[in-house]
């Protein structure tokens, strides 16, 4: 604030209106000094530069807790989730367990890894259990090597004499040799080929069979020399009363010779013959045929 010095001179007598009242009590003509006088306020000066920020003040005390806010709106309903157990694996002892979702958040497939427990201390031995049932017998082992022959023992006493034995004795025989066989003629024809001794009664030769006239054993033998040209798988057999005897059936290839012998306990009137099967087209074959009658005598 600026100060000015102003000098006033009283021109009017004290106490008169309209003039300066100089405050004098003794009359005019005195000089009054005013040493200061406040002038009108000047215009505001330009704002000065901002000073440096002062240090932060101490933290004030925590205010009282305000009232609870209003409850918010209910959120949208979430998606339903499905959970499926995937794999369950055993981890090593003392490793952390884990659960891994290999599916999606709404279709979870949970794979578990659960560590195996460490091996515990060996417990005390339990009581002996009951004896189990006997197992099945094992397979028989291989035969061991033959042992050394032992010392021959003393000869035992002679046994009682047994019953008298029997011995077959040939009575009659029929021989039919080199009978030609063609195609599948069966039974094989015997006419003109079979020879019986004079006065024979145990057998009779027919066109394609030998009739056995007496009861008892007969031995029938054949030898067949196979020809060629058979289209199938030919066989030859001894037949009794027209029925082939399976044990005498022989198959033969082209040019092969086969044969068989059969002992038959005859009933009077039975017949024996030689039969072929599946021999169509066969040529160049020969048959040798023999029938012998036996009787059994005591020895």
Key attributes of the depicted protein:
mainly beta; Jelly Rolls; 6-stranded antiparallel β-sheet; 5-stranded antiparallel β-sheet; 16 strands; 0% helix
Provide a compact summary of the structure.
This protein has 299 residues and is an all-beta fold. It has strands spanning 6-9, 31-34, 82-91, 98-101, 107-115, 166-181, 194-195, 203-205, 210-212, 216-225, 235-240, 243-244, 250-251, 257-266, 270-277, 285-298.
Describe this structure in words.
- The chain is an all-beta fold and 299 residues long.
- Among the domains are: 1-40, no CATH class; 166-298, Jelly Rolls (Sandwich).
- The protein is built from no helices and 16 strands.
- The chain has strands at residues 6-9, 31-34, 82-91, 98-101, 107-115, 166-181, 194-195, 203-205, 210-212, 216-225, 235-240, 243-244, 250-251, 257-266, 270-277, 285-298.
- Strand 4 and strand 5 (107-115) form a beta hairpin.
- The protein is elongated, with a radius of gyration of 75 Å.
- It starts with 5 loop residues before the first strand and ends with a strand.
Specify the helix fraction band. under 10%
- Helical/strand content category: mainly beta
For the largest beta-sheet, the strand count, sense and barrel status come to: 6 strands, antiparallel
Radius of gyration: 75 Å
Total number of β-strand segments?
Answer: 16
| Shape verdict | elongated
Beta-strand proportion: 35-45%
Which CATH top level class of the domain at 166-298 fits? Mainly Beta
Order of helices and strands: EEEEEEEEEEEEEEEE
CATH fold descriptor of the domain at 166-298: Jelly Rolls
């Amino acid at each position: 604030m600026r100060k000015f010095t102003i000098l006033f001179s009283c021109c009017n007598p004290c106490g008169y209106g309209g003039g300066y009242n100089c405050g004098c009590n003794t009359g005019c003509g005195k000089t009054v000094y005013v040493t200061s006088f406040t002038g009108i306020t000047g215009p505001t000066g330009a704002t000065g530069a901002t000073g440096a920020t002062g240090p932060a003040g101490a933290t004030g005390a925590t205010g009282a807790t305000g009232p609870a806010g209003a409850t918010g709106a209910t959120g949208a309903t979430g998606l339903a989730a499905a959970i499926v157990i995937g794999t369950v694996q055993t981890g090593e002892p003392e490793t952390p367990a884990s659960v891994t979702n290999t599916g999606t958040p709404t279709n979870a497939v949970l794979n578990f890894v659960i560590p195996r427990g460490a091996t515990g201390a060996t417990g005390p031995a339990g009581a002996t259990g009951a004896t189990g049932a006997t197992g099945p017998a094992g397979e028989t082992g291989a035969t061991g090597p033959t042992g050394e022959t032992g010392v021959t023992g003393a000869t035992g006493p002679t046994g009682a004499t047994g019953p008298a034995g029997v011995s077959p004795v040939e009575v009659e025989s029929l021989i039919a040799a080199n009978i030609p066989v063609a195609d599948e003629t069966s039974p094989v024809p015997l006419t003109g080929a079979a020879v019986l001794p004079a006065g024979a009664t145990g057998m009779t030769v027919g066109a394609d069979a030998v009739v056995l006239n007496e009861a008892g054993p007969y031995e029938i033998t054949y030898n067949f020399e196979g020809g060629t040209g058979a289209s199938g798988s030919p066989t030859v057999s001894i037949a009794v009363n027209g029925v082939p005897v399976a044990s005498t059936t022989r198959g033969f290839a082209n040019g092969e010779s086969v044969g068989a012998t059969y002992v038959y306990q005859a009933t009077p009137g039975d017949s024996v013959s030689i039969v072929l099967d599946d021999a169509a087209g066969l040529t160049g074959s020969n048959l040798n045929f023999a029938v012998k009658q036996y009787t059994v005598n005591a020895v």
